[in-house]
Write a structure and sequence with these properties.
about 325 residues; mainly beta; Hydroxyneurosporene synthase (CrtC); AttH-like fold; 2 domains; 22 strands; 2 helices; about 65% strand
């Protein structure tokens, strides 16, 4: 399993970032008791680099620290990315992340150890562009993070990681919903990842999938028409908009997070039903690259999920901690 991770995950920017529309980010979600932590290392062509730290502890708070491209460094083996003093290192069995944002008073060190095989999807349409991604649905995390005079300690907490790269422009004709669900009881062997790529208005999907892992192995992959989703209601009011100045630009009534999301998937003898109920969300806003009058808004929603079904003859039934991302272009 660790050999697969070491061979699959590495920084793509030195090989592919020859145009301004290149994007790459490394995204980590830590699911703690009553707490979710999002850490993101993001590159945008030759224009900018960002380190994002967002925490849900009853409410969402966080920062988006933008850095000059001159502060970006990639190791010769493509295994380590540094943005200013913060670093992300791919290890044979996982990842090491160091956050050092002195201007924001944020520091932390985290070790992510993979307990499930990674999965890679290559060259998928995203508007007029293309994107690839790798995700590890289940890791264990140890370490600490200091944010806003709060100290958080991670002691074998469950986590999720995805790594995305490609060429496209924010504000193109696309949107997505992306979710990670891990069981609240760490001994439970199941994990689930949901993905739906759509057009900007969410009238049609271009791809969708429910991925289910049992222990360290992928157990089911339910695709396209095998998946059906239903949205119910709209969750009012984001806890925060990041970067903070974008809160003056983005309409406060922008919808994006349902009160309830139902996912049903069926293929042959495999069936999955999941219900996600978000409790609150944060908005990350980015100016459109194709329209001066628009913004791309990513809504990061934390909540609970109920997952049931039958996969490979095994009964699946667990309450999960979940983070779903709703992108509106």
């Amino acid at each position: 399993m660790t050999a697969v991770l070491a061979q699959s995950d590495f920084v793509r920017a030195p090989l592919l970032a020859d145009t301004d529309d290149f994007k790459e980010w490394h995204h980590f979600v830590i699911h703690g008791p009553g707490t979710h932590v999002l850490v993101n290392f993001s590159l945008a062509g030759h224009q900018s680099a960002r380190v994002i730290v967002v925490v849900h502890d009853g409410r969402w708070t966080g920062v988006v620290e933008r850095c000059d491209p001159s502060q970006v460094a990639v190791s010769h083996d493509l295994g380590e990315l540094s943005i200013a003093a913060s670093t992300m290192r791919v290890r044979p069995d996982g990842y090491r992340v160091r956050i050092d944002l002195p201007r924001r008073g944020i520091r932390g060190e985290m070790e992510f150890t993979s307990v499930s095989r990674p999965f890679v999807v290559n060259n998928q349409p995203v508007g007029e562009g293309r994107m690839s991604w790798l995700f590890v649905p289940r890791l264990r995390t140890t370490g600490w993070l200091r944010l806003d005079d709060r100290d958080m300690v991670f002691d074998d907490h469950l986590a999720y990681h995805d790594h995305n790269w490609g060429r496209f422009r924010w504000g193109g004709d696309f949107g997505w919903t992306w979710g990670t669900v891990v069981p609240k009881e760490r001994a439970n062997p199941w994990s689930m990842v949901f993905l739906q790529m759509t057009d900007r208005r969410r009238l049609r999907f271009t791809s969708q999938a429910v991925y289910v892992w049992h222990r360290d192995e992928p157990a089911a992959m339910l695709l396209r028409s095998a998946v059906d989703t239903r949205l119910h209601g709209t969750l009012a009011g984001a806890d925060c908009t990041l970067p903070a100045p974008m809160g003056l630009i983005v309409d406060g009534t922008v919808p994006g997070v349902p009160q309830r999301l139902e996912i049903r998937a069926q293929r042959l003898d495999d069936s999955v039903r999941a219900e996600f109920r978000p409790s609150s969300y944060a908005r990350l806003a980015h100016p459109s690259e194709v329209d001066l009058d628009r913004c791309t808004v990513l809504c990061e929603a934390a909540g609970t999920a109920r997952v049931t079904g039958t996969v490979r003859g095994e009964q699946m039934d667990f309450d999960g901690a979940a983070v779903f991302e709703f992108l509106h272009g």
